[in-house]
């Protein structure tokens, strides 16, 4: 059975969405970042980057959410578009666009607005601007296509969903309304039963993640802050 190491962040949730959409059997294993579980020797042997999610499939280990989506898509043949080179080029391009742009800029926007020990206007503006710019690119693309890769619901849409469903935190309340085509895709995915099941994985599994952002949580989630204390 697949072992899915996860927490409730945007990246693990996109993998949870695939697992639920594909109807795969899997064991969800919590990695509570606010308790430092990502730094245990056992987990570092699976994912040396100390992040969630990770996937163990027998003797195969995959980490990074977009790599996992690609692995599962190729393994199962589900939620992958037609295999012609032109379509595959689009799939890989948009998947990497999420991996290198949408995700990082969204994450840093949240960090500097909500988590940083001091409010730095330059950093807040840069990451908010870049996150919105990336969302605009997605929206413009979806004005011409039903899904990110033509007319087929794929792993790229799942990757987009992981982050853009959190647009109210990344940008501001009501931000998604500025991107009507992206909102259309989010509404469609959110209405899918698999999306509700993905979000509810922790409840079904009985996993209670730490919610307090106390000194311990900050130490584990933002270890770079220790350099400032020195």
Automatic annotation (TrEMBL):
| InterPro entries, per the entry | Glutathione-S-Trfase_C-like, Glutathione-S-Trfase_C_sf, Glutathione_S-Trfase, Glutathione_S-Trfase_N, GST_C, Thioredoxin-like_sf
Q: Highest taxon of the source?
A: Bacteria
- The chain positions of domain GST N-terminal read 1-80
Q: Which Pfam families match?
A: GST_C, GST_N
Domain GST C-terminal per the UniProt entry, residue ranges: 84-213
Membrane-spanning regions, if any?
none
Recorded coiled-coil stretches:
none
PANTHER family reported for this sequence: DISULFIDE-BOND OXIDOREDUCTASE YFCG (PTHR44051:SF19), GLUTATHIONE S-TRANSFERASE-RELATED (PTHR44051)
The text of the family note is:
Belongs to the GST superfamily.
User: What's the protein name?
Assistant: Glutathione S-transferase
Q: Which organism is it from?
A: Thalassobaculum fulvum
């Amino acid at each position: 059975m697949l072992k899915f190491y996860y927490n409730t962040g945007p990246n693990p949730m996109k993998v949870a969405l695939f697992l639920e959409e594909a109807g795969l059997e899997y064991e969800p294993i919590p990695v509570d970042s606010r308790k430092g579980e990502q730094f245990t020797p056992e987990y570092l042997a699976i994912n040396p980057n100390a992040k969630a999610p990770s996937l163990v499939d027998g003797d195969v280990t995959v980490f990074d959410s977009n790599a996992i989506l690609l692995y599962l898509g190729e393994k199962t043949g589900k939620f992958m578009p037609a295999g012609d080179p032109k379509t595959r080029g689009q799939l890989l391009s948009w998947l990497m666009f999420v991996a290198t742009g949408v995700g990082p800029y969204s994450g840093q926007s949240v960090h500097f607005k909500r988590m940083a020990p001091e409010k730095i206007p330059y950093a807040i503006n840069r990451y908010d601007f870049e996150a919105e710019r990336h969302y605009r690119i997605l929206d413009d693309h979806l004005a011409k296509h039903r899904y990110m890769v033509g007319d087929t619901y794929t792993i790229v849409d799942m990757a987009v969903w992981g982050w853009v469903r959190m647009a109210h935190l990344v940008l501001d309340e009501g931000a998604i309304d500025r991107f009507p085509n992206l909102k259309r895709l989010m509404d469609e995915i959110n209405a899918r039963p698999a999306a509700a099941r993905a979000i509810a994985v922790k409840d079904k599994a009985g996993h209670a993640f730490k919610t307090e952002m106390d000194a311990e949580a900050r130490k584990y989630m933002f270890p770079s802050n220790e350099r400032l204390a020195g």
